[in-house]
Design a protein that fits this description.
371 residues, 11 strands, alpha/beta, 13 helices
């Protein structure tokens, strides 16, 4: 996964073949596998992480977050604040409390047929969750009270991406099912953020108020606000549902074809509104301390690295796309894994074997293997 990052959002990665209307790839006979048959791949793409020992327990725990296989983004964001993180960890150790961490992600499969044709989580999410579980596992091996990563899923974002609550609920349920089936519940706890918001009635008013504040800052030309909008706008533009619009028409809009001017304008208007709502969500979350309220004293992790947050690599190299934005593709020798936009996968000119998970509630492939 590339270390090109933004402090505001996980960056958009361009499509490769929007200029290719015809599909050129071929797909062999599908194969169905049990969860246990994926274990070898899972161990490769979410490898064991070991803490460095020989110093204090706090240093051992901190070493997990600067492990090259874990850290994401500029290492200086974490290394230059080592004293701060050691102090935070020491306070938990002194109280004999488990090391708890929070991270936001896994909202739903993007409602964009050029990205994926699934609605439920697949092997990409399994790998990403397994990598988070490895962090807790590494800490627990050197610290008896243990560790737990709290994942707060982003279902509420569906309100401005065109995803129904039913679809985000089904996606969350699929994450819970995969967590159990793949044995990822040792150091990982999933929280449905839709339900968290419902249980915290002061959040919605804070969200609305913050939307107004961000719009005012934007209109006043506040540099930081404009930077955040600039980074997030391409992501939002390519995340929105466009019901009734064909894949070819969406591709035309994505490559900014003048003949798709009306669709481009529609998507752009919704993206500009949505980016303010998205930023407001994140700021309101921090304003009322929503995650801190849920998990007191937790260390904040992120895939949008910045000072004061622990950047964690969500997928193994060479993947540059988050799992819910594409489909997982394994190399023929099983040694590499990527997340690829479905539109691009169908236009590489290569051959793939679709792989299904036994008992999967989604009829689309759980992964693909390059032949």
């Amino acid at each position: 996964m590339s270390d090109k990052t933004s402090p505001y959002i996980f960056p958009f990665r361009p499509f490769l073949y929007l200029d290719r209307p015809a599909e050129t790839s071929s797909f062999g006979e599908a194969r169905t596998m049990a969860a246990a048959e994926f274990s070898g791949w899972l161990d490769r793409f979410a490898p064991v992480v070991d803490a460095e020992t020989g110093g204090s327990i706090e240093e051992a725990i901190f070493s997990v977050f600067i492990n090259p296989g874990v850290i994401f983004g500029d290492p200086a964001f974490v290394a230059e604040r080592e004293a701060y993180w050691l102090e935070r960890i020491a306070a938990l150790v002194a109280a004999n409390r488990p090391i708890e961490m929070t991270i936001l992600g896994f909202p739903y499969k993007m409602p964009v047929p050029l990205k994926t044709n699934r609605k439920l989580a697949d092997f990409g999410e399994v790998v990403s969750l397994a990598r988070l579980n490895r962090i807790g596992e590494a800490i627990a091996k050197v610290y008896a009270p243990g560790a737990r990563v709290h994942v707060f899923t982003g279902g509420p974002f569906g309100a401005f991406n065109g995803v129904s609550r039913a679809d985000s609920d089904a996606y969350f349920a699929s994450l819970e099912d995969l967590q159990i089936r793949f044995g990822l519940n040792g150091h990982l706890q999933l929280h449905d953020l839709n339900r968290v918001i419902e249980d915290n009635p002061d959040f919605q008013p804070a969200w609305e108020e913050t939307k107004r504040e961000i719009a005012a800052r934007r209109d006043a030309g506040d540099v930081k606000t404009l930077d955040a909008i600039r980074d997030a706008l391409p992501v939002r533009f390519h995340n929105l549902a466009n019901p009734g619009v064909s894949e070819a028409e969406i591709a035309q809009a994505y490559r900014r074809d003048p003949e798709a001017a009306d669709l481009i304008a529609s998507i752009q208007a919704r993206a500009e509104s949505g980016v303010v709502t998205y930023r407001a969500f994140l700021e309101a979350r921090d304003k009322i301390g929503l995650l801190e309220r849920m998990v007191v004293g937790a260390l904040a992790m992120t895939v949008s690295p910045r000072p004061g947050r622990l950047g964690v690599r969500p997928m193994p190299l060479p993947a540059q796309i988050l799992p819910y934005h594409g489909v997982p593709v394994l190399s023929a020798d099983g040694r590499a894994m990527d997340i690829v936009y479905l539109w691009d996968l169908r236009r590489t000119g290569k051959t793939y074997q679709p792989v299904h998970l036994a008992g999967d509630g989604d009829s689309a492939p759980f992964a693909y293997i390059e032949q």
